[in-house]
Specification:
The protein is mainly alpha-helical. It has a domain of about 35 residues. Helices cover about 65% and strands about 0% of the residues. The protein is built from two helices and no strands. The protein is flat. The termini are far apart.
């Protein structure tokens, strides 16, 4: 039972952390307008593990 409670608490803490990160990201976007489009992210991710792999693209307005 202790293991189940511990696992539940860890899950909820991770969920809350993810939610807070999303809120912080949204707030930063509202303040700066900097972003990447979905297509830019997809293109970047498709390069992972290939010779075409690059660093994350720079955000823009």
């Amino acid at each position: 039972m202790i293991a189940a409670i511990t696992q539940y608490i860890e899950h909820e803490e991770a969920r809350e952390s993810f939610k807070q990160e999303a809120i912080d990201s949204w707030r930063e976007y509202q303040e700066t307008g900097l972003h990447l489009t979905g297509d830019e992210v997809k293109t970047w991710l498709r390069g992972w593990g290939t010779e075409a792999e690059t660093d994350i693209p720079a955000c823009h307005k």
